Amino acid sequence: MKEVKLQSSHHPLSGELEIPGDKSISHRAIIMGSLASGKTKVTNFLDGEDCMRTIHAFQKMGVSIEKQDTTVTIDSKGAAALTEPKEPLYFGNSGTTARLMLGLLAGLPFFTSVYGDPSLSIRPMDRVLTPLKQMGAQIDGREAGSYLPLSIRGKSLQGMDYTLPVKSAQVKSAVLFAGLLASGETKVTEETSTRNHTENMLRAFGADITVNGTTTTITNKQTLTASDVQVPGDISSAAFFLAAAAIVPDSQLTLKNIGLNETRTGILDVLQAMGASIHLSNQQTTNGELMGDVTVKYDKLHATTIDGSIIPRLIDEIPIIALIATQIDGTTIIEDAEELRVKETDRIAAVADVLTTLGANIETKHDGMVIHGKTRLSGGKIASYNDHRIAMMGAIASLVAQGEVIIDDITSVAISYPNFFEHLQHIKNESTIM
Questions:
Q1: What domains sit in the chain, N to C, each tagged with a CATH number?
Q2: From 56's CA, which of 30, 129, 246, 271 has a CA 20 to 30 Å away?
């Protein structure tokens, strides 16, 4: 455990930051590059613990992967060349690695066993196994395969039509990866669109994939071909500094080369609905992913209601949105976010506990929370719940708290933002870091 003590900011925040690479896209780049024939170069890869789990998994299946700083080179002979790992695959705390890899492993012609850390071992996997078993997958584990560790006896899969019962890009991606190896067509239909990085990248690597409204269809007719990937900055990580500029008076921050995929920009829509001053510039599209610079200036904000179809577009940003809500007049309502209950921790309960400890007025609901603002946050010791987003939310809260904020353990931050505290210190010192 690594405790940290933080003081409030005594002046406006300013400067520019280059946010680390998008975690979701980094995972998928490693997966696609390992399944594709040829050499794939991934730039601005997120050098975090979760993404390294995906690299290690494919290395154990015989793929040549070399990493130098944030550039990764993958040299693969394609999915058919993958080999049975000689030992169980360890996924650490990475739910993305676990759920996406299950879709692939189910259709590969060998046996695999997988496991994770204590936190990942209590996160539900049956939501992925249900459709995979309908395709013919042979997977077993605790409580009929509901939780890790799991054993996978890879076999030939049959495509199917599947309607997602949950708003989860991870489940959608797992089924699409299984469909990439299955006979016939696999169709996945969503009630509400979730992040589409898998579809974008499959298309860039040459898969036989089509998207019609909220239905995605994939077959095994095409083998993947290597394609270089430039990973944009992670908007979920950028959200913490967007929030900081929005709540610390007279602040202005510019975050460079941020991913602006429309399935992920709910945080920008909410900030604008609250009255924030946001400016986008230098926009460009690479591998189907839009990116650009985002500048946020402090302005007076007001409460809003967050629910419905926007929730999948900002599910990981809800903890920091809750913090923003404590610092603005009015009552902010968050609904339809029951997915937060099955993240690295129960994020509804964790957010309420941390912010209430600091003096916020929050009511929890089964699918969200009601935040009564504006409240003056005090100092205090808070729990991170071994959750990177809870720890970073607490750190941003320290910028506006009246006293010292002590976070019990910040080791989880390395999962998605290894240099977060370095960046935090630089903007407090009115510096620029690139």
A1: 4-21+232-428 (3.65.10.10), 23-230 (3.65.10.10)
A2: 129
Q: Name the nearest CA neighbour of 149 among 158, 138, 140.
A: 140
Contact residues for 117 (Cβ-Cβ < 8 A; gap 6+) = 92, 93
* DSSP helix/strand/coil, 333: strand
Q: How far apart are CA 190 and CA 171, in angstroms?
A: 11
| Cα 358 to Cα 78: distance, rounded to the nearest angstrom | 52
My answer on whether omega of the bond before 149 falls inside 30° of 0, hence cis, is yes
Q: How confident is the model at residue 24 (pLDDT cuts 50, 70, 90)?
A: very high
Phi/psi of residue 335, nearest 5 degrees: -135, 170
Catalytic residues: 316
Q: Would you say 183 and 159 are in contact if contact means Cβ atoms under 8 Å apart?
A: yes
What's the alpha-carbon Rg for the chain, to the nearest Å? Answer: 21
Amino acid at 20: P
Each residue of 237-273: pLDDT tens digit? 999 999 999 999 999 999 999 999 999 999 999 999 9
Q: Where are the beta strands (DSSP E) in 312-351?
A: 330-334
Question: What b/e sequence results for 387-418 when a residue is b if at least 16 CB atoms lie within 10 Å of its CB, and e otherwise?
Answer: bbbbbbbbbbbbbbbeeebebbebebbbbbbe
Pick from 334, 323, 337, 325: nearest CA to 391: 323
Burial code (b: 16+ CB inside 10 Å, e: under 16) for 337-366 equals bebbebbbbbbbebbbbbbbbbbbebebee
How many other CB atoms sit within 10 Å of the CB of residue 297? 16
How far, in Å, are 2, 82, 217, 310 from residue 194 at the CA level?
A: 34, 29, 15, 9
How far apart, in whole angstroms, are the C-alpha atoms of residue 249 and residue 297? 9
**Res. 155: pLDDT tops 90:** yes
